[in-house]
Amino acid sequence: MTGIEAVGRAVTECSRCPRLVAWRAEAARTPPARFAGEPYWARPVPGFGDPAARIYVLGLATAAHGGNRTGRAFTGNPTAAWLVRSMHRAGLASQPTSERRGDGLRLLGAWMGSAVRCAPPGNRPTPAERDTCLPFLTAEVAALPRLRVLVCLGAFAWTTALHWAGARPRPRFAHGAEHRLESGLVLLASYHPSQQNTNTGLLTEPMLDAVLHRARTLAEP
Predict the structure, then answer these.
(1) Cα→Cα distances 207→46, 53, 159, 180, 188, Å
(2) Where is the Uracil-DNA glycosylase-like domain (predicted)?
(3) Do 131 and 191 meet the contact criterion of CB atoms below 8 Å apart?
């Protein structure tokens, strides 16, 4: 078992946040009609991607009927569809769709995961739940030795990454913001590709494409 595989196993075995354990199970018991009868993963969701990744795409939390259902990060919901299309255009994904495990998707020089690995009620994890998950981010980064850029999707992921890194001062979140850590890892911010942001035009496809292309430039050796 590789280092990154061991991290993934540790993630899936975690049950340290009682509120999240209860909610991920509740979401599986009471799915929306479009998913009725489908088996749910209903466990913490590990990161996914290329072990040689230079770019890590970090989201907020596992989606109740996305990753919590499919068992793969950024899979099976509109946010995943928007993100993976953009990653495909940027040459970071083998195909423009992310529907289920085993659908053929491969990430190319990229890794993806969430700051909080379980689905939280209302998609709002607490600071304590965020901090409980931070060791998994530390372990993943350590197991991805070629990593150069951490793309933070939304203010929560940006704040999480700065908190994780112990950054001082902490730059404010803004779409396209960059911050280089003492380790050399570059944090790069984007609005989150939630339906609220994409439907209102706060985030457009060209805007997300520009961030991912910038990530590729920063990740070059």
Answers:
(1) 27, 22, 20, 21, 13
(2) 46-212
(3) no
Give, to the nearest 10 degrees, the angle between helix 78-89 and helix 205-219.
Answer: 50
The full set of domain ranges for the chain reads 3-219
Dihedral over Cα of 194, 153, 50, 212: its sign = positive
What is the distance between the alpha carbons of residues 90 and 55, in angstroms, rounded to a whole number? Answer: 12
DSSP conformational letter for 51? T
Question: What's domain 3-219's superfamily in CATH?
Answer: Uracil-DNA glycosylase-like domain (3.40.470.10)
* 171, 181 Cβ separation under 8 angstroms: no
Question: Tens digit of pLDDT for each residue in 30-66?
Answer: 999 999 999 999 999 999 999 999 999 999 999 999 9
